[in-house]
Each structure stands twice: as C-alpha cells, then as structure tokens.
Design a protein that fits this description.
There is one protein chain. The chain has 316 residues and is an alpha/beta fold. It has one domain: Ribonuclease Z/Hydroxyacylglutathione hydrolase-like (Metallo-beta-lactamase, Chain A, 4-Layer Sandwich), CATH 3.60.15.10. The protein contains 8 helices and 13 strands. The strands form 2 sheets. Strands 1, 2, 3, 4, 5, 6, 7 and 13 form an 8-stranded mixed sheet that branches. Strands 8-9-10-11-12 form a 5-stranded mixed sheet, covered by helices on one side.
C-alpha cells in the first residue's frame, strides 16, 4: 500500500511539474518591444465592387488559446482553420494559399510522430473540389509562405502559376527546410513558380510593394520573421472594405491586438527569426490601431474570417 501511494504521489508531482512548465513557458515571448512606425503612406483606394472574397476551410482543429499565443488562456478554447482564400477579380481570380490538399494524409506522415500532437487537424475538403463545384476558375496562387499547411494544394492545380518570394523559394530547397515547417515533396517537382521582386514603392507601413494588377486592388508586401520570405496581401474593394492577410505572422488576431508571439514551444518549431518576427508583429499592431477599418486576417484564425462567404463541398 505504501509503495502504491509513493508511486501515485510521484505521478501527481510529475503531472503538476509538467503543468507548471507549460504555464511558465506561456509567459515567454509575451511582450514585444514597442518601436515607432517609420514608413507610412496613404494609398488611393478605388472602389471596385466587381471584386469579392470567399474562404474555403480545408481543415480545422480545436486547441487552447495558451498553445497558440503567448499569454493566452489555458481555459479558453480556440478554433484553428486551414484555409484557402479566393479573390474573384475581373482581371483573373486569385487564390491565397490553398490549405491542405488532396494528398494531406501523405504530407502529414512526414511530420515526426512526436510533433504530430502540435499539428493535429481534421481534414474537411480540398480547395480544388470546392472550386470545381462552384465552377470557379483560378488564374494564380499567391503563397503567404511555403510551410506545408499552406502549399499542400498546389499539386492539385496542374500548370497553375504559383507566386512566392525568391528568399522563400531558395530557402525551401535547402537542408534547413524540413518538417514540421517544410515538406519538399509538395513543391520540388513544380516548375510553375513565379518569384516576385518588390518595387521600391512604399505602401502603407511598408517600404516596398508589388501591385498584382496595377490597379491598387491586390497589393503584396514583404513580411519578415515567420519564414525567410513571407508575403502579406492587401485586398481593397473600397475605402470602407479593405483586408490585410498576414499569413502566419501570428496564428490568432489576438497576437496582433496584444502584440504577442506564438506559444514558446510552437514558435521554436515554426518561426524562422523571432527577433524580426517581433518587430513585424509590433509594426502590424501599431498599423491596426491607426487603421481599425482594415480587417487583419491571420491565416489560421477561424473567427477572423467572420462575414466572408464560405464555400463548401457539401451543405453544412
């Protein structure tokens, strides 16, 4: 009986220590230095109601806020989404990322088993099937970055132009690009990449930009820190309807609102340069306060997509 009691108490102590460590780690990286915005322009926004947005949720999951944001609650549940965003445009429809594709099961097998719990998801639908159902033709895919849960769909779209940054593409081919962030089998065989070069034209808080259709409706900007060459995408429908898709700079909108990193362990697994990322988070945090009318949308925040029409393969 005494032996059993000792074992039981030891297990309880170990569990308590694990919980203590998890909670303690959550405080690391919560605060980010506050630096002033250097560049800030006010671009002219033209109204074009022929542009519209849709979102396709390819997979989803549930987790605790504390595991996705430093300083988040371990008693609050958060919905995680893996999404493709469809921009319907008169000059050609564009898809941002693509979520998980038809070969998601094969992709997930390449993530080490001991890391799988950090990336658990439930597959819902491939973007390609949903677009086919609605007879929507895509002309280009813009990647916010080349992590496995963003680039997995490109193999489903044969001969489709895929836009990314040279810095991102070159790093994605190196030995350092490995799971759980990068899965080379998703993109190494593709010959459809277009590597954009930003022009020295300031846009909002960014010193460089790339206007996809030269009409101010879809403007790309460089984002630093999460990956070597992330891209942010402004979509401007009118002065009152503007969106800024920030990829995985933060996983939750609260990361921008409160200027905080991801959970410490999560950040170690997926973030490329935490110092630069902190500066980027702070910059977008300040930008959000200056422009509350612009909707800032992190890729995986289910709630952030509120109000954007969802497309589904089956009736929900």
């Amino acid at each position: 009986m005494k032996k059993f009691l000792k074992i039981f108490l030891s297990v309880i102590i170990i569990i308590m220590l694990i919980i203590f460590c998890i909670i303690s780690l959550n405080g690391i990286g919560k605060e980010i230095p506050n630096e002033k915005i250097i560049h800030h322009t006010e671009p002219e926004i033209k109204t074009n109601h022929k542009i519209s947005l849709n979102v396709i949720e390819t997979a989803f999951g549930r987790t605790l806020e504390g595991f996705v944001r430093a300083g988040g609650s371990f008693f609050k549940e958060k919905l995680i989404s893996h999404n493709a965003v469809v921009i319907k445009h008169p000059k050609g429809n564009i898809m941002i990322d693509g979520g998980l594709g038809m070969r998601e099961g094969q992709d997930f097998k390449q993530i080490p088993f001991y890391l799988k719990p950090f990336f658990y998801y439930k597959f819902k639908q491939p973007a390609k099937d949903v677009l086919d159902k609605y007879n929507i033709k895509i002309n280009k895919i813009i990647l916010t970055h080349m992590h496995w849960d963003h680039v997995g769909s490109i193999r489903d779209f044969e001969s489709m132009e895929v836009i990314t940054r040279k810095e991102e593409f070159e790093f994605a081919k190196t030995e350092m690009a490995e799971p759980p962030a990068y899965i080379k089998s998703q993109y190494l065989d593709s010959e459809n990449f277009t590597l954009i070069e930003f022009s020295n034209i300031p846009y909002e808080i960014f010193s460089k930009s790339f206007d996809i259709y030269n009409d101010g409706s879809i403007v790309l900007v460089p984002l630093e820190g999460h990956s070597p060459g992330s891209i942010g995408i402004f979509v401007n429908i009118s002065q009152k309807e503007r969106y800024f898709f920030i990829g995985d700079i933060t996983w939750m909108l609260e990361g921008i609102i409160y200027s905080s990193h991801k959970y410490y362990i999560s950040s170690l697994l997926v973030d490329f340069n935490k110092e630069n990322l902190g500066k980027e988070i702070n910059r977008i945090h300040q930008f959000a306060k200056l422009h509350p009318e612009i909707r800032i949308i992190p890729s995986h925040d289910f709630v952030a997509y509120w109000g954007i029409e969802r497309l589904n393969l089956f009736d929900q």
